[in-house]
Design brief:
The protein has 3 domains: 80 residues, Arc Repressor Mutant, subunit A (Orthogonal Bundle), CATH 1.10.10; 115 residues, D-Maltodextrin-Binding Protein, domain 2 (3-Layer(aba) Sandwich); 103 residues, D-Maltodextrin-Binding Protein, domain 2. The strands form 3 sheets. Strands 3, 4, 5, 6, 9, 10, 11 and 12 form an 8-stranded mixed beta sheet that branches. The protein has a two-stranded antiparallel sheet with strand order 1-2. It has a two-stranded parallel sheet with strand order 7-8. Helix 5 links the parallel strand 3 and strand 4. The protein is globular. It is α/β, with parallel strands linked by helices and 313 residues long.
């Protein structure tokens, strides 16, 4: 017999590429992870780890087993969903996670809606960037995530995850109140090519990639004068006339900041695609389906946020 928990450890090692990183994600010690892999190796009768310099790496046999593990977990999640459908109504814990402005504009209102409409659900929300969301799903620390894909995210057809578009979120140009573009109804992104820009530090969040990609598509490389990640910090820098920024429609800003959101038009008009993500096979679980429905309802109510398509389940 093969213990699915040991397969989960193997999947975590593959996902993180290192035993130590997998151990941290699983809240285990590296020695415990190695022990689980060695026991799994004895279960299947083939070596799953081999020395690689000062570290270890997965063997060819381990990758073969991983393909089957993904299929097994898909069927297991589907089985749990089908069994749960025999229980009347949605009941139990629902663990949500997502990026900061997604918590503000989507997850928090969805959780509040579920508290009223699904009293038998126990909903918890965790703020996390995309990489951590995928990690939480894989290690069964979350059930449903809202994420923005980045170049480092799992591929859309990754067999471990079910990723489905929820909305395309518009991006606005954020300028100081006295800026020449502040009184315009809409502008082209290229009109801000000569301004100093405020962006997050590369690699800290998805927004840096969104800004740089949009500006390059508009025909210029932004001159980055300041780095900030949190939206209030970005807004403060803009309000003091230190630069301009792109800001997603869902991001909330302090009311006291003298800034103006100017809609963008023309080509390109930058947006960021927001996905719902579950473990593959789990989307039809009644508890998760209730969360997906609530998110879709909230997304449809957000002004200026374009709904991508129905069929969220």
């Amino acid at each position: 017999m093969i213990d699915l928990r040991r397969l989960q450890v193997l999947r975590a090692v593959h996902h993180h590429g290192m035993v130590t990183s997998a151990a941290a994600a699983l809240h285990l010690t590296p020695s415990a992870v190695s022990q689980q892999i060695r026991q799994l190796s004895r279960d299947v009768g083939v070596p799953l780890l081999e020395p690689h310099g000062r570290r270890v790496r997965l063997t060819v046999a381990a990758h073969v087993l991983l393909d089957h593990a993904d299929a097994l977990y898909d069927r297991w999640e589907a089985a749990k969903a089908e069994l749960a459908a025999h229980v009347e109504g949605a009941a139990g814990p629902l663990r949500l996670c997502g990026f900061p402005s997604g918590v503000v504009g989507l997850l928090a209102p969805a959780a509040a809606r579920l508290a009223k409409t699904q009293p038998d659900l126990s909903v918890s929300v965790t703020e996390a960037e995309a990489a951590d969301c995928f990690d939480r799903l894989l290690t069964d620390q979350a059930d449903l995530a809202v994420v923005i894909p980045t170049p480092d995210s799992p591929a859309a057809d990754d067999p471990r995850f079910d990723q489905t578009p929820l909305v395309d979120e518009a991006q606005d140009l954020l300028v100081p109140a006295g800026h020449p573009l502040a009184t315009r109804e809409a502008v082209r992104l290229a009109e801000a090519a000569g301004d100093p820009w405020i962006t997050p530090e590369p690699g800290t969040c998805d927004q840096h990639h969104v800004v740089v990609s949009a500006c390059i598509a508009a025909g210029f490389t932004p001159h980055v004068a300041h780095r900030a990640t949190e939206w209030p910090a970005v807004s403060a820098l803009v309000a003091h006339g230190l630069g301009v920024a792109l800001i997603p429609r869902l991001a909330a800003l302090p009311a006291e900041h003298t800034v103006v959101r100017v809609p963008l038009h023309g080509n390109p008009t930058p947006t960021r695609r927001i996905l719902t993500c579950t473990r593959r096979g789990a989307r039809r679980h009644p508890v998760i389906a209730a969360g997906l429905d609530a998110l879709a309802e909230i997304a449809a109510m957000e002004p200026g946020v374009i709904e991508v398509r129905p069929g969220r389940r």
